[in-house]
Amino acid sequence: MKRVIDFSFSLLGLVMLLPLFFLLFFLIKSTSKGPFFFIQERVGREGKIFKMIKLRTMYVTNSYRSPITKKDDVQITRVGRFLRRYKLDELPGLINVLLGQMSLVGPRPDVPGYADKLVGSDRVILKLRPGITGPASLKYANEEEILAMQKDPKAYNDKIIYPDKVRINMDYYNNQSIWLDIKIIFATIFKTIY
Fold first, then answer.
1. Radius of gyration of the chain measured on its C-alpha atoms
2. Cβ–Cβ contacts within 10 Å for residue 123, how many?
3. What pTM did the predictor assign?
């Protein structure tokens, strides 16, 4: 049932959002050099690697980029700041949902290296399709702002945020239902607590 809902709503969403994609294409391409999409390897269901699609929000550089991004990161473009603020950069994830690599609701897919930190019973999280949104995404909707206030953003993420996300995702795994997914989708759209 969940897969049917994911497929139907992602297809409908992509069709309805087509005019917005054209507008965002113009804004991104006219304000900075580089591709329209940002494609990054992420860890999916059963630990399989897939290519997650997002709108590009950063300048294209050859320098190393940390998987941790702060709100005030100088590599974020002006248009990128707007896209990130309203989570519009996540909309192409509907393509991943359509392809069955992601779900509308689930744990956010980690970059390789972070999923490896899941140990013991926490690894059951990998049985879920990763989601565009989820309970941990809602709690940490302002994650970039939180990290910008830390002296060592990576250490804070690794010691505080990541373990809390694992706990939240375990709770989601143990209590998942279509009704809970609907509540999370509405909470994401209307920025409320479910």
1. 16
2. 12
3. 0.88
